[in-house]
Design goal:
The protein has six helices and 37 strands. The protein has 495 residues and is mainly β. The relative contact order is 0.10.
Length: 495
């Protein structure tokens, strides 16, 4: 090995020593609270809701360069009629499309919205999605290309939803009778007092077909959609059964609404879905009456993910390949802690795994979403430095960086990193390494290649070639997984 190569390996090892990074996203000016609900594939854009100086919820978008911005200010030119965006509930992997709920002044209703931040490449477009004939709606998920939006809505029979981060109003009927509509926020606050009385329907929206009622389980009149697959063909959520019990569902156009059952108890809710729709996560009651985070597949059914020592856990997000699940769980002291689950490690308390980032007494309480490749996690917690409940962005690994120094005992190098036709993946194993797999994903989290598939590598340098001539130009992520940990390295395909 020449001097140049020696310098390269030395530099690489220094990079390998870098640890994960936690960013508290702050609040809107004068506000006391924020929560993150979605993150782009590359971790550069985070969305959610935050209180403003008056204490009302406003949709936000965060970037490292711009910090937290109120979407009502950034896109004020789209809201000139007095409409407001209350909270952003999901974002597309490329960061372009944002969905949530707000007040549509034109219809005087709380409605689901779809915000296209790059329409025609230079303009933006805000689309209010309407309802199924009733008084309100809320968007909770969006497909990878922004063409499909899912959520909950009131139908023509007057079944009005009250779900998600946005506060919705039971007082709509009274509000319509008011001589002057007055403060919408005052009306919305009243919703919390009786929102449980209202019932709702799951919807799937497209520009061509509008809002589609996904129906309910047999004998029921309530449902809600919470997530959608990358291509928009599979929707998950919850619906009541004939006995009035909530059941997680998985919907497709061909199969309709499928009841996913429970863990032996009376209820379940689905909250997240993998890119191809094969993995569903959420929360379900077991036979002992305890609520547990679950992961469902057609092959294995619904499986409990356990807890962190307490009595309760809920799963909210899942990586594109279904291998990493995030949510929250009670610890032994009954405190809510954000978790990450993998088949290899089980349920990890993020406050323990990343304790070195929380030395000031801060706490990661809930993980709401995860990037397609499993690298970025967003949610909310207690920021001890500000004394506030704030949204957070956790970068669990940086390009060429392990979560723990030396965890995988295998170093990965791409030759070259800017690729036109073929790329060589060079792996150096300091000692024998087991269960080695290389997975390559695109910016939407879709797996485009899988190599080695659980191989055992003897000590030494190993080389694997990858043909990318049929791949589209763009950014990809190469993830090296071993039984001891994982490493991610960026790959750029150029044309």
């Amino acid at each position: 090995m020449g001097k140049g190569a020696a310098r390269w390996w030395h530099a690489l090892w220094l990079v390998w020593m870098v640890v994960a990074r936690l960013t508290w996203l702050g609040t809107l000016p004068g506000g006391d609270r924020s929560w993150a609900t979605g993150v782009s594939a590359d971790g550069s854009v985070v969305v959610g809701g935050a209180e403003n100086a008056e204490g009302w919820s406003r949709a936000f978008r965060w970037t490292a360069s711009g910090g937290m911005e109120d979407l009502n200010i950034t896109y004020a030119h789209l809201l000139t009629d007095g409409s407001k965006l209350y909270a952003a509930n999901a974002i597309s992997p490329d960061g372009r499309y944002v969905v949530g709920g707000g007040y549509n002044a034109a219809t005087r209703r709380i409605e689901a919205f779809l915000l296209d931040t790059q329409w025609t490449g230079v303009e933006e477009r805000l689309t209010w999605l309407g309802t199924l004939g009733g008084g309100g709606s809320l968007a909770t998920g969006v497909s990878a290309d922004g063409s499909v939006v899912v959520g909950v809505t009131e139908n023509a029979a007057g079944k009005w939803p009250a779900f998600g981060s946005v506060v919705v109003s039971e007082a709509w009927n009274a509000a319509w009778q008011m001589p002057a509509f007055g403060s919408l926020e005052e009306v919305i606050v009243e919703a919390w007092k009786a929102a449980w009385k209202w019932k709702w329907r799951a919807f799937r929206w497209t520009a061509a077909g509008g809002m589609q009622n996904l129906g309910t389980l047999p004998g029921s009149d309530e449902s809600e959609a919470r997530g959608v697959s990358a291509d928009g063909s599979v929707v998950v959520g919850s619906a009541r059964n004939a006995a009035g019990q909530w059941r997680a569902f998985r919907w497709t156009a061909a199969g309709g609404m499928q009841n996913l059952g429970t863990l032996g108890g009376d209820h379940s809710w689905a909250a997240g879905i993998s890119a191809d729709g094969s993995v569903v996560v959420g929360e379900a009651e077991n036979a002992a009456g305890q609520d547990r985070a679950f992961r469902w597949t057609a092959a294995r059914g619904m499986r409990s993910l356990g807890t962190l020592g307490g009595d309760w856990s809920e799963a909210y997000g899942v990586s594109s390949d279904g291998s990493v699940v995030v949510g929250w769980a009670e610890n032994a002291e009954g405190q809510p802690h954000a978790f990450r689950w993998t088949a290899a490690r089980g349920m990890d308390d993020l406050n323990l795994t990343y304790a070195h980032l929380l030395t000031d007494g801060s706490v990661l309480e809930v993980a709401n979403a995860i990037s397609p490749d499993g690298r970025y996690i967003v949610g909310q917690g207690y920021n001890a430095a500000t004394g506030r409940d704030e949204a957070f962005l956790l970068d669990t690994r940086r390009p060429g960086v392990e979560e723990r120094s030396g965890a995988t005992r295998v170093r990965l190098r791409l030759l070259p990193q800017l690729v036109h036709e073929r790329v060589a993946l060079e792996l150096e194993a300091a000692e024998a390494a087991g269960r080695v797999t290389i997975v390559v994903s695109d910016v939407l989290g879709r797996v485009v290649a899988e190599l080695l598939r659980g191989a055992v590598l003897p000590p030494g340098v190993h080389r694997v070639e990858l043909d990318v001539r049929a791949w589209a130009a763009g950014q990809y992520t190469v993830v090296l997984r071993t039984e001891a940990g994982s490493t991610a390295v960026p790959l750029a395909v150029v044309r």
